[in-house]
Design a protein that fits this description.
Number of strands: 2
Protein name: NADPH-dependent FMN reductase
Largest sheet: 2 strands, parallel
InterPro entries: Flavoprotein-like_sf (IPR029039)
Strand content: 15-25%
Radius of gyration: 10 Å
Strand order of the largest sheet: 1-2
Number of domains: 1
Number of helices: 1
Length: about 40
């Protein structure tokens, strides 16, 4: 079953821990076949 995933990243610095975590969540959603949106 395809899920919709919304990732809200509020870090002001690119490459911060929060930014890396958001990108890894998006990567996992993509690999699992889910649709995702990263804000």
């Amino acid at each position: 079953m395809v899920k919709k995933v919304l990732i809200i990243s509020t870090s002001l610095r690119g490459g911060s821990n929060s930014d890396i975590l958001a990108n890894e969540c998006a990567k996992g959603a993509k690999e699992a076949g889910h649709s995702w949106l990263n804000l």
